[in-house]
Amino acid sequence: MEDSNGEDLKETPELPLEIIVYILSFLHASDRKEASLVCRRWYNASQDLRFQKNLIFSFPASASSLVLVRGLARMPRCSLKISQLDGFSISRSLLLEVGLCLGAKVDSLALPGSSITEASLLTLLPCLTSLRRLDVRGLDSLFMSGAFLSREEHRRQ
Question: Residues 86, 114: contact at Cβ < 8 Å?
Answer without folding.
Answer: yes
